[in-house]
Batch of 3 targets.
Target 1
Amino acid sequence: MNTLVVITGPTGVGKTDTAISIAQALSAEIISADSRQLYRDIPIGTAAPTAQQQAIVPHHFVGTLALDEYYSAAQFESDVMQLLPTLFKRSPYAVMCGGSMLYIDAVCKGIDDIPTVSDEIRAQVYAQYEQHGLDYMLAQLQELDPEHYRVVDKKNYKRVVHAVEICLQAGQPYSSLRTNSTKERPFRIIKIGLNLPREQLFDRINRRVVAMVEAGLIEEARKVYPLRQLNSLNTVGFKELFAYFDGTMDYDTAVARIQKNTRVYAKKQLTWYAKDDDMRWFAPGDESIMEYILQSCK
């Protein structure tokens, strides 16, 4: 039976190297499940696989989008489901590697059939948010969809704005479109979670940020600074450096804030993964991962 091996875990834990080793052993190709590595021109800030790593094993969905292109978990699900039959003709295995939880769930569990938001509605709603702020958008969501308003993360403006967009695009409440049902897939799914003791993980994150700065992160961020309003750049690493360029944060504070916010994101990822009973946990590079995969396929 064809098998999708999912390699996930908190940011900075070592997913890419582990996935490459597993893909080599299985003669498989890698699907990147990272919502930021999709974009071109920011490989350092997104810790995208290097050209050398991609030469070892073919990677898909890395550097395929322009920074101003819209993309969603629903599109990712559709694109991956179209790609997998081709990959399975070349090998009975495919490896999906990344830490974007919604993207992984979209492929493993499916995502509700939510309409794609038009450019006109997206521009309209974001203009309202920028002009009136989050409280205004929350009031609009409460009117359009009281049920979703009760459960939405009211501090996460992206979730609130997106819900309003969907309500306007669909002409009906966002909550009425959400079934939360799991789709059946015509392939086996094996989920591998990578983790390390908290102190060790945080040390890796701190050192990786320093390495990214040494590799040219400041210069990369400065090149895209004129596009700082784009959603693709609304992410840890670039937000802090844009504040530094704006003069609202000094250099040392910006780097320290990148480290801190990356650690916070790692904790959020681990909280999300804790709800997934299908995940089997290993240390990155653990040789018993391959044994577990092959045993699971018997």
Note: The chain has a mean pLDDT of 95.
Target 2
Amino acid sequence: MNHDENPRNEQPEGAASPVPDAPAPSPAAEVSGRQRLKAGLWPPRLSRAQLIVAVLLFGLGLGLAIQVRSTSDDSALRGARQEDLVRILDEVDDRTQRLEDEKQRLDDQRTELENSSDQAEEARKQTLEKERQLGILAGTVAAQGPGITLTITDPSGAVAPDMLLDAIQELRAAGAEAIQVNGVRVVANTYFSGDAGSVEVDGKKIEAPYEFTVIGKPQDLEPALNIPGGVVQTLEKEQATVLVERSDDIVVDALRPAQRPDYARSSSP
């Protein structure tokens, strides 16, 4: 036997020992690692500072995009031909003019509506005033204003209905606008009837003293009654006493019912 051989295949002294092969990873371990990686990446966990930086970057990018687009438009205009620039300017002028015309049209409509509203309001006021005036003349509404109070005392019972009617006529001629006698409203068709000492106004019996409440200008009404040979002197000849008092606030509140005409109709359309 050869003694130089090493029957045990022993490594020489000082030689490195062989490294045993590492075991292969199991499939379960590989799946678990992927899950941990995915859980670590999603959902993303951003801090407040990172979120602020992201928003600022987004805003900066948007501003750059707008600026680039605007610069592109300006560049397009700079590079346009003179004819194109003139055409664009004319289109802008036409558009501006159309807008101005539309604004003027709307302003005119607004003014027209305002005027129409004002005219309608003025017409309504005039109608109400006309109605009030006609109501005063017709005796259907009360009236108030300056005037006089005429009081006739008849102790001898000699005052006849025609004497009272003469007083009404003198007052109307002097500008009386509203009259009532002993609580009876005097209107255009008012009449006096009866005998001395038993006077009726529109079929209603009245007794002395006869009190006339009259609205009008006192400076015209009182002299009309005191003219020579007028109402006051005629009544005094019958032993009646006549008292005329001026006032700045006379109220005529006796009313007549409104009557609807049977045949007359308005000729206005």
Note: The chain has six helices and eight strands.
Target 3
Amino acid sequence: MDYRRIIPCLDVKHGRLVKGVNFVNLKDVGDPAENAAAYSEAGADELVFLDITATLENRKTLLDAVQRTVDRISVPLTVGGGISSCQGIEELLDLGVSKVSINTAAVRKPDLVRQAAKKFGSDKITIAIDTAKNADMPSGFEVMIRGGTTGAGIDAVEWAKKAEGLGAGAILPTSMDTDGKLTGYDLPMTRAIADAVSLPVIASGGAGTLEHLYEAIDQGHADAVLVASIAHFGTYSIRQMKEYLASRGVPVSL
């Protein structure tokens, strides 16, 4: 059975769990390791840990916060933020991280994706793509880098296809336009990327209701949904999310 996965996202800044809107106006919502432990216990399929200011601050991911998180959970953890070399990837995998997520460094050095996939296996390499609407792009969506602050001048769908060719194992596209707004995922963007690649695609940015999760899978063709605000602020439990999807005929691991 090919289950659709619920993946809480831990946006971490200076070792603390935060949540904002369009990547800014961040609120402190606690300790990442504690929250991760609660999600793992509650039935989350996987977790994503993003050190959201690492690239902007020209530093590597905070390894101690990652280690504390890994030690508290029993589900796979993907870590991203500031990863720019195979050595950096190896350090994280050595801590017990299941996968890494690469964004800015992959855009700037596509060969890193090829090298990393070859060295560690495609299943360890997720390419995160921050997108923004841009009518000048063939698909209508541009790749954004450096924590969503800078347009890369690259079409998001074309980049997803290239990343697949370089050996990536999954694509994690986040819409800058919908992130944190609770108005739903960017379905046209998610679907355009999902339909262009044969890799698992994780919808991200904007979930506010249970219906939004269903739409990401049904209309956005996503294999998994990333959730943040609706989980961190207690709007819905992981169980409620899964039971709702199951009630709509989506296969989930209950």
Note: The chain has one domain: 5-247.
